[in-house]
Write a structure and sequence with these properties.
The protein has 767 residues and is of the alpha/beta class. 30% of the residues lie in helices and 20% in strands. The chain has 21 helices and 32 strands. The chain is globular.
Length: 767
């Protein structure tokens, strides 16, 4: 029997999931999970939940599905140690570093590969299974026959999403949010750039729409087929959703799973009625009706995208048009309605009037507020209604919203139920927290003599077409990296097109998305290329590691590409254990983190991209026919371009990412492999000359982005630290001013010295 797995973004959602019959829940704690904007669980709440659910023979999985920078590792190690003591039923992980750390120190923790790991083939599942992962959450953009093929060719458990929000980008490959401000989807901080309102330059002039905001997935009709295939776990998306939403969706899928064998048609009709209160976006079955990859590429876009569909969910209630200071009595009612388990921030409320909608929310209704500038969305349960002297109706909302922000209805009170509490009333006995353990030092493998002959120091240029190889070779790079796509497959595999360079000087880069329907073709193309004399490949998917392993004895070399994320040395170590000894750093990485990850003694293993047009969205499908544009821009005027063909679609910035002017600094730092990546663009000698000039003169390219090179990922802890530092500096200035103005008047000129900075030095680690 398949497991029904439900989200638990907060305690109420946990109660609803278990109350409606979920077999298991997944949740996050306050860090290292891909939904940092949800409420998440405190330490004692989580420990109590594990205890209570295990008594009910239910399972609980913890999301640890973000990548970690080098500075995070000590805290990550302590967090994993805490989880090892508490004993959840599994950890959902993305970072290879987490896998490696658990293999070394916490082998009893059961690991599940997150959908953020970008696994969509049996080759990928089997590679992770051999590494000890019991289960893999496969990518959401797969079809029924692809799921069947994976199940037929692996013994590992398969978990898959069946309901809820979709990412428009291929799983784990979205860089858009990170590019806009360091809030990386791979760090749990996605700002949902796909849901934004864009202006496109079409043949008929400017046109606006929510061009990349996908519909929500609903696979209720496919559940019987998927159960017959043998999928072990059905996963509902929604850790940011209300308890009412979680309860209604769990109830629908529970009913169908329990009753479809008795009366498939009747059970499906009942389940659909239970789902009718899901006020989310319009629904799609996405890839599940297509027989071939080619059919899906051509048709899936029109099923998942609707530019006229607002990025929000629910029924539109209007915009906030004014705020008022409510009476103390109204504030007290709202605070009491929050309940004893509410976090302190739940008591911080404002009272807002809505205009433009056709429904007035009542206490108990669940709403979602969207900031007009797309910087955030928050779900909230209305607790009280207040009327001013003129009879104008106000509802309580969280603080931080402004006039013009939109509000949507998610669930009404009449749809909600009261569920038995999962957590005990008294959780005081649950007191465990991460400790102060010290992470042992990990040294990466020293470079052996002649080990990196396939990876010489110097300039590398990456291109997407054979014709661009001819342009690239004019710069005399030590190697040209050629992307393997439908065009280059025709040229290299079918036509055997001659190149202006020897095959030793050409590296083949494999596409980061490797779905089950193309898995055999990719493996066959690799075989033919190896037979034809190509010896070095860039792997960008765990499936590639398994596919290339059989050729290592024939002298084939593998470089870990930028999509095999190496944000920390433990992730690097895991890839080293796959017999990979050279690495291209991720595009969203920072200079400081690169230096921290790779000590000087191993920097010969590393290639750094200094110029690129990053693929911000990578979509598996061709865009709908009425998307007759190449260029579009956001509300801030930032321009992007979209490419769409038989390989799928890409969104890229119009201006490149460039730190070409930093090459001398990079070389001085011990990194002597430099990459200019012209993938998905037409390489011109003029652009190549521009980049070369930037490198030679150490001058930045005008309008180019630095991405995260200088500032790194957005770090709320660092922001708070800066605020505290500024407050402290202001305090010291005020004290100095006081001393100056009032010296000798009760406070000596040589009075008490100010306290030292509260931040201590970095703690040393044991070797």
């Amino acid at each position: 029997m398949s497991e029904l797995l439900a989200p638990a973004g907060n305690i109420e959602a946990l109660d609803a999931a278990i109350g409606e019959g979920a077999d298991a829940v997944y949740l996050g704690l306050k860090s290292f999970n891909a939904r940092l904007r949800s409420s998440n669980f405190a330490w004692n709440q989580f420990e109590a939940a594990v205890s209570s659910l295990h008594r009910q023979n239910k399972k609980i999985y913890v999301t640890v599905n973000t990548v970690s920078e080098e500075r995070d590792l000590e805290r990550l190690y302590r967090f994993l140690g805490y989880l090892n003591r508490i004993g959840p039923d599994g950890l959902i992980v993305q970072d290879f570093g987490v896998v490696r750390m658990c293999q070394e120190f916490f082998p009893n923790l059961e690991l599940h590969g997150s959908t953020q790991m970008n696994v969509e083939s049996a080759a990928g599942v089997n590679l992770l299974s051999k590494e000890g992962l019991k289960r893999v959450v496969v990518a959401r953009e797969l079809g029924l026959e692809e799921i069947r093929k994976i199940k037929e060719n692996t013994s590992a458990e398969i978990e898959m999403f069946i309901h809820g929000a979709l990412c428009v980008s291929e799983s784990g490959l979205c860089l858009f949010s990170s590019y806009l401000g360091g809030k990386s989807a791979n760090r749990g901080m996605c700002t949902q750039a796909c849901r934004r309102f864009y202006t496109a330059d079409t043949s008929e002039g400017e046109r606006q729409g929510f061009y990349f905001s996908p519909c929500d997935m609903q696979l209720i009709e496919k559940i019987p087929d998927l159960m017959e295939i043998g999928v072990e776990s059905f996963k509902i998306e929604g850790r940011m959703k209300s308890a009412e939403y979680v309860g209604s969706v769990v109830a629908a899928y529970r009913y169908l799973m329990d009753h479809y064998k008795e009366d498939r048609k009747g059970a499906l009709a009942t389940a659909k009625r239970l789902l009718s209160t899901d006020f989310a976006r319009s629904k799609t079955s996405y890839w599940y009706n297509f027989k071939t990859n080619e059919e899906g590429v051509e048709k899936a876009g029109s099923l998942i995208l609707n530019p006229n569909q607002a990025g929000g969910t629910g029924i539109y209630l209007g915009k906030i048009d004014r705020f008022e200071q409510a009476t103390d009595e109204a504030k007290q009612r709202a605070a009491e309605a929050a309940g004893p388990d509410a976090a302190p921030e739940d008591y911080r409320i404002a009272f807002a009037h809505l205009s433009g909608g056709n429904y007035d929310p009542d206490p108990g209704d669940s709403i979602r507020l969207h900031r007009a500038d797309d910087t955030g969305r928050v779900s909230h349960k209305v607790r009280t209604v207040w009327f001013d002297e003129d009879g104008t109706r106000f509802i309580d909302v969280p603080v931080g919203f402004r006039r013009g922000d939109e509000v949507y209805l998610l669930q009404t009170k009449s749809m909600s139920k009261r569920y038995p509490r999962v957590l005990p009333n008294d959780i005081g006995k649950f007191r465990q927290q991460p400790g102060a353990e010290v992470l042992p030092v990990l040294d990466l493998t020293p470079v052996q003599k002649n080990e990196l002959s396939y990876f010489p120091a110097g300039l590398y240029i990456q291109v997407s077409t054979v014709s661009d190889v001819f342009v690239a070779q004019s710069k005399n790079p030590v190697r040209v990296i050629l992307e393997l796509n439908s065009g280059t497959v025709r040229d290299l595999v079918e036509k055997k097109t001659s190149l202006p360079l020897s095959k030793k000087q050409v590296i083949i880069s494999l596409d980061p998305y490797c779905p089950a329907s193309k898995e055999d073709d990719v493996a066959e193309n690799i075989r033919k290329l190896v037979e034809d004399g190509f010896r070095t490949f860039v792997a960008n998917n765990v499936a590639h590691i398994g596919m290339l392993r059989k050729y290592r004895a024939d002298g084939v070399n593998v470089i870990a590409g930028p999509y095999l994320y190496t944000f920390n040395r433990w992730a690097v170590s895991w890839l080293e254990n796959q017999n990979i000894g050279a690495f291209i750093t991720p595009l969203e990485n920072s200079w400081d983190n690169i230096k921290s990850t790779f000590e000087p003694s191993v920097r010969e293993r590393v290639m750094i991209t200094v110029y690129a047009y990053p693929a911000l969205f990578r979509m598996r499908f061709r865009l709908p026919a009425d998307y007759d544009f190449t260029y579009f821009r956001d509300k801030e005027g930032m321009e992007f371009k979209v490419l769409s063909n038989s390989d799928g679609s890409l969104v890229m910035p119009e201006a490149p990412f460039s730190v070409a002017d930093k090459v001398e600094t990079i070389n001085r730092g011990g990194f002597s492999r430099i990459l200019l990546d012209f993938s998905h663009t037409t390489l011109s000698k003029q652009e190549l000359k521009l980049v070369s000039s930037s490198m030679a003169k150490q001058q930045p390219i005008q309008d180019a982005s630095r991405f995260n090179w200088k500032d790194g990922f957005y770090n709320p802890e660092k922001i708070e630290e800066y605020k505290a530092m500024n407050e402290r500096q202001n305090e010291l200035k005020a004290m100095a001013k006081f001393d100056k103005n009032f010296s000798g008047k009760g406070r000596g000129r040589n009075g008490p010295a100010p306290r030292g900075n509260a931040r201590g030095g970095r703690r040393g680690r044991k070797s």
